[in-house]
Amino acid sequence: MAELTYRDAVARGIAQEMERDPSVVLIGEDVAKAGGVFKTTAGLLERFGPERVRDTPISEEAITGMIMGAAMNGLRPIGELMFSDFLATCWDIVANQIAKTRYMTDGQVSLPLVIRTANGGGARFGGQHSQSLENWAMAVPGLKVVAPSTPADVVGLLAGAIRDPDPVVFFEHKALFAGKGEVPDGEIVDALGTARVLREAPDITIVALAAMVPKALEAAAELAEHGIGAEVIDLRSLVPLDTATLFASVSKTSRLATVEENPRLAGWGAEIASIVTEEMFWDLDGPIVRVTTPHIPLPAADELEDLAIPSVERIVDTVRRTMA
Amino acid sequence: MQQPSPETRLRLYADMVRARYFEKRAYDLFLQGLLKGTTHLGLGQEAVAAGFAAAMRSDDMTFCTYRGHNHTLLRGAPMDALMGELLGRENGICGGKGGSMHLTDVAKGAMGSYAIVGAHLPVAAGAAWAAQVRDTGQVSVCFFGDGTTNIGAFHEAVNMAAVWSLPVVFVCENNLYMEYTPIDEVTPVEHPAADRAPAYGLDGIIVDGNDVDAVYEVAQRVLSRARDGAGPSLVEAKTYRHGGHSRADPGKYRPDEEVAEWMARDPIVLYRTRLEEFGIQPDELDRIETAATAEVDEATEVSKSAPAPGPDTLMTNVWADGGSAWRN
Q1: Which of A95, A131, B85, B261 is the most exposed place for a label (fewest CB within 10 A)?
Q2: pLDDT interval class at B2 (50, 70, 90)
Q3: What single-letter DSSP state applies at residue A88?
Q4: Has this prediction a pTM greater than 0.90?
Q5: A196-323 has which fold?
Q6: Would the pLDDT of B1 be above 60?
Q7: Does CATH number 3.30.565.10 belong to domain A2-183?
Q8: Which among A101, A242, A244 has CB closest to B112?
Q9: Chain A within 8 Å of B65 (Cβ-Cβ)?
Q10: How many angstroms separate the CA atoms of A125 and A128, rounded?
């Protein structure tokens, strides 16, 4: 067991898979010599060489298109998009090509590839480098969507994503990069589509993802002081979605709150709320509540961004109001 | 480069004729309402597809556009399965899930028809990158229209292929019109692909896309170059579509004299004349045409009588496990 930062866990996860499978390769802007702008790929070039770890021009369509073509012809490529906001520059390749090709060819084409990208707010980067876009990917049939919250999950879910035979968009959260956590020694491989109950309690289920997970845990601790037992679930992946773990929890607590960084409209929490409403309505003791970013572009100033992104205080207040 | 052998010449002729008859039938079926949606015909552009297909190795990879019937057929995809796909039948090459714009036969190296302009250039480059990394000796060949030279993905892909010296051949089929608009009205250079090549350190290669021997010769040259590790090529083939952009577009925005001039340069008519000059008997060429008609008739009958795709196929093959489940 070693303590690793979330950013170092990215390199560890990639290295683990490159070590075992020579078809795993990594490309992206500044990923090789510079080790990534967030230093998430530091040391990989030195360890695996320039043929497997390669810098690209600023060409997101080329990065995503090339990993698609490479996956069609025998590699298991990883492409890095420096910021998830840049998905918008290559959304054709991601949403029209990568996501649909297996279906449109009736299974002739397999695309075992991973798009890794730095997601989320909190770094004061402003509206074009701070978005949480996991709901974009979730809205497209044919993409798997993963967003880890801890260093150990980064390693395990990254391995699961790389070994997955389908395309995976892997969202690494910028606000978590410096955070540390215990990572078990040896190979770690996690199955996609497995949520994790991080805190058990009887009164309400709080579902969160990525950087919202530590906030949900903090809020749950505070809620306990107010006599409310909040169970916390880390979804870990949106597609596949582990509804079984979610339903088991809600059938116990009869209440649900979702905490997401997506802007309000059509954020992933809305889908969770819809599923639970439709299938567990008679188990619920009250309305499902969503804590989200307001439906605005993200601002840059500290005070404004902190107001926009769900805070521990907002989670506590929202849960207390619905429990009142 | 070697001249085509007599066998190759007959193949080139047969391929162009098969593609021509297949697409003429597709157009008839469209007018009859049996082919739904849309269809983009390559009538008049067959020499580009035939010349490259004949020069490619069986494990080379073809990437083409929605105007890709010719390319997919001539890599060896079965005609009945292509016709079935156009008609949305169970026997379709993609089970009816692709349609006219997405013909794919991976087993034959026809790696897909891509319907968003420019998207497949980086994909073709990526397949070439995998061939380079795995040292397979394969070449990726990517066909696209003149309009593609003005979209970003073209420039990203050609740049990347040149920087990484990838075994990919980009082939611009310049038919003078991007959809309904003359390409020279929206492009600042005379040759939309070839004139851009030097910006990426490549030679500007122009070939008469209606002369199948000339295409075959250039194809051999650029494929060898790629296979020898000398990197990508960008070829501009001058050609002309006999019909409009898609569906029932009559292409009336084109001057009559221009259409007449190009119709007189029909690649199939030109090649038949040349083959007869080489001493090939008209009977032999007639037999090729008769056989192509029979093949198209057979493909049409098989596909018209094939059932619609079963409702159970709607939810298959989203994922590698064969299904479409997104939750437990």
Answers
A1: B261
A2: low
A3: G
A4: yes
A5: Rossmann fold (3.40.50)
A6: no
A7: no
A8: A101
A9: no
A10: 7
